[in-house]
Amino acid sequence: MAVGADAPGGSAGPRILEAMPEESDARLQPTQFAYDEVGRALVITWGDDAVQRIGFAGLRLACPCAVCSGEFGRPGRFAVDPELHPGEDELADISLVGMYGLNAVWADGHNTGIYTFELLRRLGEA
Ligand SMILES: [Zn+2]
């Protein structure tokens, strides 16, 4: 077995890889989801200590599901009628989807939107 010159100590066996999250990962790792009921906003705290507020209306308008954002050339719900109807911007519940996203349930019953953390971070910075 050949040991390269870049292996000081010459220890055999698999290389040790550092798996510390980089700063860019902390930016996309939420540590808390909360609500501002008066301001009607989702409040997200991120791994880099940034705190972002996303208004319910803006969150609903950005729903990435096929119905809202369209698919296969069909326009999405808000492309046809950009007006929010009662309940559509009333956040009823949220839950985590794996380690990558957030599912939102709205008061009108709509619950197919999964917001990736990347999308949420972008919405919070908008
Ligand atoms: Zn949707």
Structure characteristics:
three-stranded antiparallel beta sheet; disordered N terminus; alpha+beta; globular; 126 residues; 5 helices; binds zinc ion; single chain; NE0471 N-terminal domain-like
Hetero ligands: zinc ion
Q: What is the C-alpha radius of gyration, as a whole number of Å? A: 21 Å
Separation, N- and C-terminal Cα atoms: 54 Å
Number of domains: 1
Write a structural description.
This protein is of the alpha+beta class and 126 residues long. The chain has helices spanning 23-26, 56-61, 66-69, 77-80, 117-125; strands spanning 30-36, 41-46, 51-55, 91-97, 101-106, 114-116. 21% of the residues lie in helices and 27% in strands. The longest helix has 9 residues, at 117-125. Mean pLDDT is 88; it is low at 1-5. It binds zinc ion. Zinc ion binds at residues 63, 65, 67-68, 110, 112-113.
Structure in a nutshell:
The protein has five helices and six strands. By secondary structure, it is α+β, with helices and mostly antiparallel strands. It has a single domain (23-125), classed as 2-Layer Sandwich (NE0471 N-terminal domain-like).
